[in-house]
Amino acid sequence: MKRIVVLDAISDDACKRLEEETGWVVEKRLGLAPADLPAAVEDADVLIVRSSTQVTAEVIAAARRLKVIGRAGIGVDNIDMEAASEREIRVVNTPGATTTSVAEITIGAILSLARWIHVGDRSLRAGEWRRSDFQGFELKGKLLGLVGFGRIGREVATLAQAFGMRVVATDPFLDSSSVQGVRIHTLDDVLSRADFVSLHVPLDQDTSRLLGREQLERMKRGAFLVNFARGGLIDEEVLAELLERGHLAGVALDTYATEPPGASIERILAHPRSLLLPHLGAQTREGQIRVGMELVETVAKAIKKFMSDRANRLAEEREAQEAAAALSEAGEGSPESAS
Ligand code: MLT
């Protein structure tokens, strides 16, 4: 029996449709501690994860039957891609499913930072009435700097432009000077000019700590940083220091170097204007329905491809064996072999 083992929660509907599309059994093994993962994946032909489970080289080695890893979401930074590729395990994700969800919450955070929405709420709940302390500013005319101008970055730009914001972006994969009314600049230019900097790049070895001391200090005094991408893109210690020094006016974070973040973000948590969320960017009803649909489609396709590649390989091997057998039969009867 072939098994699809689900390690992070996806919808029941997606699980049901995975079974229907593939004919393989879906089993949920949710919320496991890292130490329990190798034993839990031994009989898995397919693994399904979101961002919580770390699919390390050790996990991949333990899953001896593994053929496909389905990532319900965009980032594949929680999967050891090298270990997967060494075993020719296909990794598929759902790149377009949550673009709108992440873009909308990014704009929500920018608005909240500009207008003290989250701070005002906390203050009122604490029994205060501090209207004069929370004078904000309008987004119209302010400069938004996007680090990463792929699907999500472009959607954020469209929404920000609707608020009258000016938008610049940096993206190593773009060489044109302007896309969708957004001028493309170097990272340094974007950081030094923008009123808000928002990150929309994947986490990999090139982008790890992309915003270290030098880059964070390059940001304009009084600017805001928004990160709904990955915590590992930023040096959190330096960020805390720049907030305490008043170099940065505020920050909105949804992702952290380790999740849940624990003590590592205490100093950022203490900053009066920080807005900190528990990795909610993709967490919408519509986004997760689309994730389920895209996941079923891509995983089923990857399984079919695996099966047809295997059938072709077996057919080729059988043909080669038959040809070798025919050759040796012919050889045995030939005059040369008799001499
Ligand atoms: C993503 O990479 O798409 C999200 O971070 C996934 C998630 O919310 O788990």
CATH class of the largest domain: Alpha Beta
Bound molecules: D-malate
Total count of strands: 13
Order of helices and strands: EHEHEHEHEHHEHEEEHEHEHEHEHH
Give me the secondary-structure category. alpha/beta
The CATH architecture term of the largest domain is 3-Layer(aba) Sandwich
| Number of continuous helical runs | 13
Roughly how many Å apart are the termini? 53 Å
- Proportion of β residues? 15-25%
Mean pLDDT comes to 95
CATH superfamily of the largest domain: NAD(P)-binding Rossmann-like Domain
Helicity, in percent? 40-55%
CATH topology of the largest domain: Rossmann fold
Net shape: elongated
Strand count, sense and barrel status of the largest sheet are: 8 strands, mixed
Over the alpha carbons, how many angstroms does the gyration radius reach?
Answer: 26 Å
Low-confidence stretches: none
Characterise the protein shown here:
This protein has two domains: 1-95, Rossmann fold, CATH 3.40.50; 99-283, Rossmann fold (3-Layer(aba) Sandwich), CATH 3.40.50.720. The chain has 13 helices and 13 strands. It has helices at residues 12-22, 37-40, 57-62, 81-86, 99-115, 117-125, 151-162, 187-193, 213-218, 236-244, 266-269, 285-333, 335-338, and strands spanning 3-6, 25-28, 46-49, 68-71, 90-92, 143-147, 166-170, 178-179, 182-184, 196-199, 223-227, 248-253, 275-276. The strands form two sheets. An eight-stranded mixed β-sheet has the order 8-9-7-6-10-11-12-13, sandwiched between helices. It has a five-stranded parallel β-sheet with strand order 2-1-3-4-5. It starts with a strand and ends with a helix. It binds D-malate.
